[in-house]
Amino acid sequence: MYNILIISPLLFALIVLMGGVKFKNILIIFFVGVLSILSLLNMFFATTFVSNLSHMYHKIFILIDTLLLLYFLAQGIIKKNHLVSGFAIVQILLYSVVLSLSPTLLSNDILVDNISSVMYLVINIVGGIIIIYAIEYIKSEEFSEFKKNAFIAILFLFLSVMNFIVSTNNIEIFFMLFELTTLCSFILIGYRGDKTSSENALKALWMNQIGGVAILIALIFSIHNYNTIYFDMLITNINELYLLPIVFLAIAGFVKGASIPFEKWLLGAMVAPTPVSAILHSATMVKIAPYLMLKLAPAMSGFVSVTITLIGTFVFFSASLLALSKDYFKEILGLSTIALLALMMSLAAIATEEAIMACLILIVFHAVSKALLFLQAGILEKSFHLKYVNDINGLINHSPLVVFFIIIGFASLTLPPFGAFAAKFMAIESIAKEIVNNPLYSLALIFVALGSVFLTLLYFKVVTKLFAKDVDHKEKLHVKIPKLYTFSSYMLLALLFIGVYVSFDIELLSALEIIVPLVLIAVIPMLFAIFVFKKAHRVKEYHCGEKDEVKLNMYYFDIPQKYKQLINVIAISSILILIAGVIL
After folding, report:
1. What is the rounded CA–CA span in Å between residue 355 and residue 98?
2. Is 214 domain-assigned?
3. Is the pLDDT of residue 569 over 90?
4. Considering the domain boundaries, does residue 31 fall inside one?
5. How far is the C-alpha of 273 from the C-alpha of 287, rounded, in Å?
6. Which residues contact 305 (CB under 8 A, 6 or more apart)?
7. Is 46 left (phi over 0), alpha (psi -120 to 50) or beta?
8. Which helix (H) or strand (E) holds 111?
């Protein structure tokens, strides 16, 4: 099944790219349906599957890798970006070293397990729905017909690469696919071709090249010390006294997951067409980070586990705090993605059964919720020409449906009975249990608790703005939303509620754990109003006969630059401590 999931999107991409196809939109929707059905069949009927690829495939992969690195080098030279060309040279040198080594401890190139099956669902169903949305979105872009078709084709290529990356057990092949996702993101972020897009695309390129360098270093240590290039053999034979391969692979995860201090590449991706942001944040690219951590989880223990957990929870806390100071809607969504990805990686590093389950649940629900929210961000930009939260006063009067989708999107990340709430609940429980083994986990628990509060405050702040209305604003104009926008949004909404049904079916949370938070949300504000505001002495302002004007604005938590720099310093220092701790 895995090979069909890899090859099918490639064929679909070629068909779309050729153009001149009648009923193109229907055909693309059909392609998405095929991928969704295949991923569901794999989930329900497939078992763990292993396979080896022929020597010819390995030669082809080496050729692809070499061409990729040379392309990156050429881009660095052409665009006069020394970081891109410098990292490309380093990668070429390291890759040459990897190829010169000959590991003898062999295993299977392909390993499809339960985690792979979950990732197939996220990649193909959520990613496919975003492609349906992209059909309508790309129509209004000032591109040639070929470039519009190429955009959809690259999205299908992205799904193919992602399906392959979650199927491979070979770290060399994983490196090639890692760099292919970097290539896809580089092309898509710079797709509009303007100066800002090109600069941010190059930033995404060189930052992700750091992850590629980390994988190559991990490969060299793995071959030198464990004589293997396979994930399963590395994990099986891992020695707690020599965990450098695991650490460098984890660093590659931090880069791909845009953890602080690597967050700028993902935030810079906001200049791309909205389907790019949606697919990067939900179904592809950044999801490599928690997947890679889950792959490494059996080897996580002691110092490495604690340190990665602390780094992840610190990033969760910091990104949540930084999001409170932002007004650009997509940037708010981006920082919350960075925060939640860091939490996923922390849970994978804890490596207990409950923590891994929480990580998987968070991966799935975050993908659906964030896709839904980014799709609405695209609608706000295209249909209402709105990018900033402070400008969305009274959106409820113009498009109640978009407001409904935004509210559900934020609620699904925050409130019961949605899976993201359950996953955070399980995360707190998992971390709390580890405090007995190491008191440092108490710091991680504080980070998670505070980060969760910040994110909840952020979501409620944005939702409140949707209902706000200036007193002098009387116009009530309903804007018609294109059918493919609403269709894709309804599909994601259906996935959310299917997830809720499954959560009830497997008893993810008890009835008490669902009811109590909802009751508290309703009761606490009422009690506050009764016992605090009741005593307030209300007086009206005197305006000296001038007209009374009311305008509702949002309060932003201004974070001084020195504190932002401090966050970066702490994050970089933590990664260096992780490396030094393993070496020493």
Report:
1. 34
2. no
3. yes
4. no
5. 19
6. 349, 350, 351
7. beta
8. strand 110-112
Residues 538, 380: Cα–Cα separation, whole Å: 38
Cα–Cα distance, 238 to 226 (Å, whole number): 8
The answer to whether residue 130 is domain-embedded is no
Cis before 103 (ω within 30): no
Tokens at residue 50, please?
Answer: 């292993």
Q: Is residue 459 part of a domain?
A: yes
CA-based radius of gyration for the chain: 24
- Separation CA 516–CA 20 (nearest Å): 57
Cα distance from N-terminal residue to C-terminal residue, the chain: 44
User: Rounded to whole angstroms, how far apart are CA atoms 362 and 422?
Assistant: 9
Tell me what the mean pLDDT of segment 530-550 comes to: 63
Maximum Cα–Cα distance across the chain: 88
The pTM (predicted TM-score) of the whole model is 0.91
What's the token pair of residue 297?
């989880």
Q: Answer whether 112's CB lies under 8 Å from 106's CB.
A: no
The string of DSSP letters for 34-76 reads HHHHHHHHHHHH---EEE---HHHHHHHHHHHHHHHHHHHHHH
Strand partners, 409: none
Q: How confident is the model at residue 539 (pLDDT cuts 50, 70, 90)?
A: low
Handedness of CA 122, 125, 131, 133 (dihedral sign): negative
Q: Can you tell me the distance from the alpha carbon of 406 to that of 395, in angstroms, rounded to the nearest whole number? A: 11
Phi/psi for 210 (5° steps) reads -60, -40
Q: Six-digit token pair at 363?
A: 């991966």
Partnered with residue 112 across adjacent β-strands are: 49
pLDDT digits (tens, 9 = 90+) for 184-235: 999 999 998 889 999 999 999 999 999 999 999 999 999 999 999 999 999 9
Beta bridge partners of 328: 388
* Residues 138-156 pLDDT 10s: 988 888 888 999 999 999 9
Instruction: Tokens 């505001």: give the residue.
Output: 533
Is 339:316 a contact under the CB 8 Å cutoff?
A: yes
What is the residue range of 313's domain? Answer: 306-473+480-504
Total structural domains in the chain?
A: 1
